[in-house]
Amino acid sequence: MTQKRSNRRKFLISGGAMVGASFATFSSGLLVPAHAKGVDPTPTMRGGSNNYRAGAPIVERIGNGGFWMTGTVRRAGDGAPLAGQRIQIWAHTTEGHERDPHSHGATLTDENGEFRLEMPQIVPAFGQPHGHLAYDSADFKTVFLRPIMPNASDSSLSAHFVLEPA
Fold it and tell me: Residue 8 pLDDT > 80, yes or no?
């Protein structure tokens, strides 16, 4: 019985303190409506533009495939998905170096702002297995990404863009 009374007393005291704090905040004029925090744009990553080739063609697949590069593209501020955005992808793979034209390709985002492109297995270059991705169209600021794979044997890698208007 004493335990119940003690818990009830703590609950009433803490509840009263919250109401008092709320009233004090309201009466002091500090009460403001809640606003959703804006979604910040993705910064360009150092080394992301290495071996970039402007205008890489939109392709169904790079090489013989077997590895999946996936991700999303959203608008800065409200985080809305962006459909029809061109994402270029390239990497050092089992079929070529990241500087080789046949190691580059682009894809478009779907209605949910998602992209997916099959390519050859990424292999380590300079000791790290990594991919390169770019948003380089005119509507938004250019962003280069260079995500590193946790493990060289992984069969997929994801990257996410939040773009701000150009």
Answer: no
